[in-house]
Each structure stands twice: as C-alpha cells, then as structure tokens.
Write a structure and sequence with these properties.
With 164 residues, this protein is an alpha/beta fold. The protein is built from six helices and six strands. The longest helix has 18 residues.
C-alpha cells in the first residue's frame, strides 16, 4: 500500500484469460461511486448517532490487469524491481493456453513471500489444501469460487491488506 496526496492505494495485480472478467475487476476495483457512497454513509452515521470517531478515507485501488500467467509474473517482477510490489495478486486457476494460475502464483510467491495471493476459479480441480502446499504460507493465500461478487472481493482485499 502506498499513500499519494493523503489517499491510500492498494496495488492489485489481476490475471484472468477472460476479458469480460477482467472488465468486472476493473469496474469493482475502480468504483469511485461506491467509495463516495461509503463516505456519505459514514458522514450520515456521524450526524445521526453523534459518533465522535473520525471518518476514515477508504483506500483506492491501483490495479493492473493481464490475461496470462506469464504476463502476471513479468509484471510482478518489474514491480518488485522498481520497489513497488503488489499488495494483492488475484489469479484465475485456469488460463489457457499458457501456464496456470497455480504456477504463476508459485513463482510470484518466490518474488514476494508476503504478497496476498487470491485464487478465483470456476473449476475447483485444485483443492485448497493442494494450493496451500504449493504456495506457502497459507496465511497469505485465499480461494474464491466463481461466480462471485467482485464488489465484495474488493472489500475483502481491503480487509486483507489492512490486517497485513
């Protein structure tokens, strides 16, 4: 996570071979309107319930999307070399014709042992226990099945990084 002009940003790398799915990620992780709605709800709660807590500015996302596992590895390597590693990497398990998300995740994990890796798949042919063995440590590994709420996943990513 980095801060720019008092705004926190979470760096997210997404790899999925389906362009429609990548567009869903871009929309969910770049939804300025949803962030503004959360600010409005927080302000309303302060007004209605006279809470003295500060309104916390929600982090925004700095998202990079690619369609293949090899591309994800190259992007992650470049980010690490620049000293700007990703906070979260979201991978589809299957991304034909190239390497699968499990191999990409394993290689990205070697670059950064602390990055949160999230697998999203419509096919559960690789059990979570197998992923935990191939891409340790399990504390930084997550697994979601499609179909899923991309907006909910964005909220989950904020939680992953905030507790990191």
């Amino acid at each position: 996570m980095y801060t720019l002009q008092n705004q926190e940003y979470i760096r997210v790398l997404v790899a999925d071979d389906d362009e429609r799915v990548l567009e869903c990620y871009r929309e969910a992780f770049g939804d300025e309107e949803q962030t503004n709605q959360m600010k409005a709800l927080d302000a309303l709660a302060v007004e209605l319930f006279d809470t003295s807590r500060d309104i916390k500015v929600q982090p925004k996302f700095d998202i990079v999307a690619c369609s293949q596992g090899e591309d994800a590895i190259k992007v992650a390597e470049a980010a690490a070399e620049e000293g700007k590693p990703f906070d979260v990497v979201i991978l589809d398990v299957r991304m034909p014709p190239g390497i699968d998300g499990v191999e990409a995740g394993s290689r990205i994990r070697r670059l950064d042992p602390d990055v949160e890796i999230v697998f999203v798949t419509g096919f559960s042919d690789v059990p979570f226990a197998e992923l935990q063995k191939r891409i340790p440590p399990p504390v930084h590994l997550h697994y979601f099945n499609k179909p899923l709420s991309f907006a909910q996943l964005a909220e989950d990513v904020v939680t992953m990084v905030s507790t990191h």
